[in-house]
Amino acid sequence: MDGIVLLHGIARRSGSLASLERQLRSAGYATLNLDYPARQTGLRQIAEEVQQPIAAFAGGLDGRLHFVTHSMGGLVARALIAQQRPERLGRVVMLAPPNEGSEIADLLRGNPLYRAFFGPAGAELVTARPDELQSLLGEVDYPLGVIAGDRSLYPISSLLLPGPNDGRVSVERTQVAGMSDHITVHATHPLIMRNREAVRQVLHFLAQGRFERASAATVPTEAAAP
């Protein structure tokens, strides 16, 4: 059986991915939905902390190890894979990841309230990254599918983001060199993991290594997956 590690976003918990996890289990995957200290430490420390439970989970599988992530969880997965690549790494699907940072973080990184709430990792979500952080995230040389959203619940922050965006990350900055496929669905940043089309595309990429284009043009807005 193949297994899937789920990694939530900053200021979220594993419960935010519970509905998606049920869908993945129904599709026949074993799952590990991890909580991690997203606001207390930086990306390097987070990747180090999740390495052991992920290795233990992978050791109990007889198939490949996939990753499905939301928001900053995508950067955690990139750091983990770059530093401690699993032996039987499968496919990676990222929902609304700030792969190239977010202009919102650029604007707020000096704000004391932002720094206090989002912590060290929040400061690493900027668009201009130091070489050390770029090295930590590494190159994408594995099957990666990225799903972006283009709807927002945050009208003010959306005005600060260039082009289509989900209220937190622009569609353009979800992309990263080396990715296998990219698709945009009509979903918002905090709810994209519950969008039916996004869930369908996650399952399709895990099975096929690509997204399905036929129905992507007629995507429903947010709807809770069963």
Please provide a written account of the structure.
- The protein has helices at 18-26, 43-59, 73-83, 103-108, 112-123, 131-137, 155-160, 196-208; strands at residues 3-7, 30-34, 65-70, 89-95, 144-149, 181-185.
- Strands 2-1-3-4-5-6 form a 6-stranded parallel sheet, with helices on both faces.
- Residues 215-226 have low confidence and may be disordered.
- The chain has 8 helices and 6 strands; from the N terminus they run E-H-E-H-E-H-E-H-H-H-E-H-E-H.
- Helices cover 36% and strands 15% of the residues.
- Helix 2 (43-59) packs across helix 3.
- Helix 1 links the parallel strand 1 and strand 2 (30-34).
- It has one domain: Rossmann fold (3-Layer(aba) Sandwich).
- By secondary structure, it is an alpha/beta fold.
- The longest helix has 17 residues, at 43-59.
Compact summary:
By secondary structure, the chain is an alpha/beta fold.
Write the layout of secondary structure elements.
Elements: E1 3-7, H1 18-26, E2 30-34, H2 43-59, E3 65-70, H3 73-83, E4 89-95, H4 103-108, H5 112-123, H6 131-137, E5 144-149, H7 155-160, E6 181-185, H8 196-208
Parallel strand pairs: 1-2, 1-3, 3-4, 4-5, 5-6
Helix pairs in contact: 2-3
